[in-house]
C-alpha cells in the first residue's frame, strides 16, 4: 500500500509521467517537480551561494557556474531567490566583466534584496580597480544614501567623501566625511584616522566644519564586526600559520579570487609556481591566532577557509 505524500508540493516519482516527447518531459519535470521546491526555498535565504562558494574554493569553478546557471533557469525572476542566483553566478565566474554585469543587474533590479548592498559594493570596487573613479563614486554615494543603517555606513561615506574631494567637490566630500566620522565604530581606529586626515582638507580650504548628521536609529543598526587585527609577525625561524581560502588548478582563477578578497580588505596572496595555486590570507605567529582569524572571517565576511602552515618567507 502506498502512503499519501505528506508534502503537497511533492510529486511521487513512481507516478506515471504524461506521454510526451523527451524534451517536453524534461520541461514538465522542471515545471511540476522543481518549481514548487524552488518556491519553498524562496521563503528563506537558501544555501545556493554557500554551495557555489564551496565549489569555487575547491577549484571547481565550472561546477559552480553550472549550479548557478541551473538555479537561474528554474527560479522566478523578480524574487529574492532569483537575486541569490545572480549573486551566485557573479561569484562563480572568473570573468571580471561578466561578474560586474551580474552584480550591477542585481543592484538595479533587486534594490531590496539582502544582497543589494554587497552587490553595489562589488560594482564600486570593480570600477575603482580599473580606474573608473567617476563610476565608483556614483556607487559609493548610492551606498551612503541607500544604506544608512549598515554596519559599513562609515566606510561607504568615507569612500564617497574621498572620491568627491579628489574631484574637487569640496562641499559634498566634506558632508560625506562628516557623516563618516560620526559613524566610525570606536574600535576602528585606522578608519577614524583616515577620515580625520581627509577632513583636515575641509578646514584647510576654509570650509565650515561639516554639519552634524541626523542621528541614526541605533536600535536598527547591525552591530559592526570587530576589526581584523594585523597578523603578528613571527621570527623567521618560527613556524607561521595562514588561513587558506582555496586551491586552484589555473592561476588566473587564483588571481581572480585574490583580487576579490583584496578589494574587501584582506591581506591575501597567491602561493605556488605551478598547480595547485593556493589563495592564503595573513601570517600568524600561532595556530590559535590563525584559528581565531578563521572564525572571524567566517562569521563576519562569510569567507571560509582552513588553517595551514604558511610557506617560508
Topology summary:
Layout: H1 22-42, H2 48-57, H3 61-74, H4 80-92, H5 96-109, H6 116-129, H7 133-146, H8 153-166, H9 170-183, H10 189-204, E1 241-248, H11 251-263, E2 268-271, E3 277-284, H12 287-301, E4 306-309
Antiparallel strand pairs: 1-3, 1-4, 2-3
Helix pairs in contact: 2-3, 2-4, 3-4, 4-5, 5-6, 6-7, 7-8, 8-9, 8-10, 9-10
Describe the model.
- There is one protein chain.
- Helix content is 55%, strand content 8%.
- A hairpin with a 5-residue loop joins strand 2 and strand 3.
- The protein is globular and about 55 Å long.
- It starts with 21 loop residues before the first helix and ends with a strand.
- It folds into three domains: 19-110, no CATH class; 132-213, no CATH class; 241-309, Sporulation related repeat (Alpha-Beta Plaits, 2-Layer Sandwich), CATH 3.30.70.1070.
- It has twelve helices and four strands.
- With 313 residues, it is an alpha+beta fold.
- Helix 5 runs antiparallel to helix 6.
- Strands 2-3-1-4 form a four-stranded antiparallel sheet, with helices on one face.
Amino acid at each position: 500500500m502506498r502512503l499519501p505524500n505528506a508534502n503537497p508540493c511533492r510529486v511521487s516519482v513512481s507516478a506515471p509521467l504524461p506521454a510526451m516527447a523527451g524534451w517536453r518531459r524534461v520541461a514538465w519535470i522542471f515545471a511540476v517537480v522543481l518549481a514548487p521546491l524552488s518556491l519553498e526555498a524562496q521563503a528563506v535565504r537558501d544555501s545556493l551561494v554557500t554551495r557555489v562558494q564551496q565549489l569555487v574554493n575547491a577549484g571547481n569553478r565550472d561546477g559552480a557556474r553550472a549550479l548557478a546557471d541551473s538555479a537561474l533557469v528554474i527560479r522566478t525572476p523578480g524574487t529574492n531567490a532569483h537575486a541569490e542566483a545572480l549573486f551566485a553566478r557573479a561569484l562563480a565566474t572568473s570573468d571580471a566583466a561578466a561578474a560586474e554585469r551580474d552584480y550591477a543587474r542585481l543592484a538595479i533590479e533587486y534594490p531590496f534584496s539582502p544582497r543589494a548592498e554587497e552587490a553595489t559594493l562589488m560594482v564600486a570596487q570593480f570600477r575603482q580597480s580599473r580606474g573608473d573613479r567617476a563610476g565608483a563614486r556614483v556607487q559609493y554615494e548610492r551606498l551612503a544614501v541607500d544604506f544608512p543603517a549598515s554596519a559599513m555606513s562609515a566606510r561607504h561615506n568615507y569612500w564617497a567623501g574621498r572620491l568627491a574631494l579628489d574631484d574637487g567637490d569640496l562641499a559634498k566630500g566634506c558632508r560625506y566625511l562628516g557623516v563618516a566620522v560620526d559613524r566610525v565604530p570606536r574600535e576602528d581606529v585606522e578608519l577614524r584616522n583616515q577620515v580625520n586626515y581627509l577632513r583636515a582638507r575641509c578646514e584647510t580650504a576654509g570650509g565650515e566644519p561639516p554639519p552634524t548628521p541626523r542621528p541614526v536609529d541605533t536600535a536598527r543598526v547591525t552591530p559592526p564586526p570587530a576589526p581584523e587585527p594585523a597578523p603578528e609577525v613571527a621570527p623567521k625561524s618560527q613556524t607561521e600559520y595562514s588561513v587558506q581560502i582555496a586551491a586552484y588548478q589555473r592561476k588566473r582563477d587564483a588571481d581572480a579570487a585574490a583580487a576579490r578578497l583584496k578589494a574587501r580588505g584582506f591581506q591575501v596572496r597567491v602561493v605556488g609556481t605551478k598547480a595547485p595555486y593556493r589563495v592564503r590570507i595573513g601570517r600568524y605567529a600561532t595556530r590559535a591566532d590563525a584559528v581565531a582569524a578563521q572564525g572571524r572571517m567566517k562569521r563576519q565576511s562569510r569567507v571560509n577557509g582552513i588553517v595551514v602552515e604558511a610557506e617560508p618567507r
